[in-house]
Write a structure and sequence with these properties.
This protein has an 8-stranded mixed sheet with strand order 2-1-4-3-5-6-7-8, sandwiched between helices. The protein has 12 helices and 8 strands. Helix content is about 40%, strand content about 15%. The protein has one domain (about 65-215, about 245-340): Alpha/Beta hydrolase fold, catalytic domain (Rossmann fold, 3-Layer(aba) Sandwich), CATH 3.40.50.1820. It is globular and about 60 Å long. A hairpin with a 3-residue loop joins strand 1 and strand 2. The protein is an alpha/beta fold.
C-alpha cells in the first residue's frame, strides 16, 4: 500500500527552521530577566508553548518542579529551609499548581472590586479562614503531564517528610493543566503506595480539561486536515512544534501511551484512589447552566462536560458568567472552594 502522506517540502522545512530560530532568539533574552515579573510571564509562555525545545537552554524556568516563595525565591526541600520559609507552618498544607503557560504568579492579582476580586490570593485567604499553610509550585508546563505528575509525586513525598510539623491534611488545588498534573501524581502515588497519600488528602480542580481541551482538540483536527494536502502540509508541521504538554491537553492524558494518535483508548484508564476526595469546579461564560452555548464553548478553553467529567468520583460544582482565568481569583470560586474544604 502506498504512503499517501505528502512529502516534506522545502517550504515546510524552511518555515520550521524559521520558527525554531525565532524561539531561540526570543528565549535567550528571557534568561537575562527571568526573575522580573515580565520575564517570568514570558518564560512561562515560551516554555509552555515550546517546552521540549527550551529545556536544553538552562534553568530560566527549570524542568525540575520547585516550591516558590514570593515568586523569586526557590525554597529547598529540607527541614531547615522549609522552617525558615514557613515559620508559621501548620499541619494542613494546601499546594497550588498553575496551568499551561502560567507560573505561580498567576494566583496573585490586583484588587478589582468591580470584578469580584479582593486582591488577596486564594492561599492567603485560606490561611486565615481554615487555617492552613499555602505552598505555591512552579513547573515547566511544556513537558508531558505524566512527567510533571511524576515530579509532583516525588516533591510531595519530600515536602511531607521534611515539613516542620507533622502533616495531617494535604490539599492540592490545580488550575486547568495543574489539575491533570495533580491527578497524575495522585495515581502514581497510589500505585507505588506513597506515604504522603496516607494523609487526609483532597483535590480541587479548577477548569481542568479531564476529557480534553476544546482549543487543542480544534488544533489537532486542523493539523490533520492541513497535512492531507501538499500545499498546506508546511502549516501542519508548524502546528506540530507545539509542546508535549499542550498535546496532552487534547485528551486530558495523565499517563504515557494512554491514548493513540487518533485519541482512542490505548490502555486501561488509570485508577484514581477512592480515599482522595475530589471537587471539580466548572465555569461557563453563559449564566444559565442549561445554555447550549455554555455547553459548547464553556469558559472559552474548557467545556463544562470536560471540567466536570461525570465519569469521575468527584463532587461537581458549576458557576455561570465566568471565564477560564476567573477561576484563579474570583470571589465566587473561592467561596465554593472554601465551603467544600470545610465540609
Amino acid at each position: 500500500m502506498s504512503d499517501r502522506r505528502p512529502r516534506a517540502t522545502p517550504g515546510g522545512e524552511l518555515l520550521t527552521r524559521v520558527l525554531e530560530g525565532i524561539t531561540e532568539v526570543v528565549y535567550l533574552p528571557l534568561r537575562m530577566m527571568t526573575e522580573s515579573s515580565a520575564g517570568q510571564r514570558a518564560t512561562g509562555i515560551v516554555t509552555g508553548m515550546f517546552g521540549g525545545a527550551t529545556d536544553r537552554h538552562g534553568d530560566a524556568q527549570p524542568a525540575a518542579m520547585t516550591v516558590r516563595l514570593d515568586s523569586a525565591v526557590q525554597v529547598h526541600l529540607d527541614r531547615a529551609a522549609l522552617a525558615a520559609a514557613f515559620p508559621d507552618a501548620s499541619q494542613r498544607v494546601v499546594v497550588f499548581l498553575h496551568g499551561l503557560v502560567e507560573t505561580e504568579r498567576s494566583w496573585f492579582h490586583p484588587s478589582t472590586p468591580d470584578r469580584s476580586r479582593t486582591g488577596t490570593d486564594f492561599g492567603g485567604r485560606l490561611a486565615g479562614d481554615l487555617p492552613c499553610t499555602p505552598v505555591y509550585l512552579r513547573y515547566n508546563t511544556g513537558r508531558h503531564v505524566s512527567d510533571n505528575g511524576r515530579e509532583l509525586d516525588e516533591l510531595l513525598a519530600r515536602l511531607v517528610e521534611q515539613w516542620p510539623v507533622p502533616v495531617t491534611d494535604l490539599v492540592l488545588v490545580g488550575h486547568s493543566m495543574g489539575g491533570l498534573v495533580a491527578r497524575s501524581a495522585t495515581i502514581r502515588a497510589h500505585e507505588r503506595r506513597g506515604a504522603w497519600l496516607t494523609r487526609n488528602c483532597r483535590l480541587v480542580c479548577l477548569g481542568t480539561p479531564h476529557t480534553g481541551a476544546l482549543l487543542e482538540q480544534t488544533v489537532v483536527h486542523l493539523g490533520t486536515l492541513l497535512d492531507r494536502f501538499a500545499a498546506t502540509a508546511p502549516l501542519s508541521r508548524i502546528l506540530a512544534l507545539r509542546s508535549d504538554g499542550i498535546k496532552d491537553l487534547a485528551r486530558g492524558q495523565l499517563q504515557p501511551g494512554q491514548r493513540d494518535e487518533r485519541g482512542a483508548s490505548a490502555m486501561p484508564g488509570p485508577v484514581f484512589p477512592g480515599s482522595v476526595r475530589q471537587c471539580f469546579i466548572a465555569v461557563t461564560l453563559a449564566r444559565s447552566e442549561n445554555s447550549i452555548w455554555g455547553r459548547l464553548f464553556g469558559d472559552l478553553f474548557v467545556t463544562p462536560g470536560s471540567a466536570g467529567d461525570p465519569s469521575q468520583t468527584a463532587e461537581l460544582r458549576w458557576l455561570g458568567g465566568l471565564n477560564h482565568f476567573d477561576l484563579l481569583s474570583h470571589d465566587t470560586v473561592y467561596d465554593v472552594m472554601l465551603e467544600w474544604l470545610r465540609s
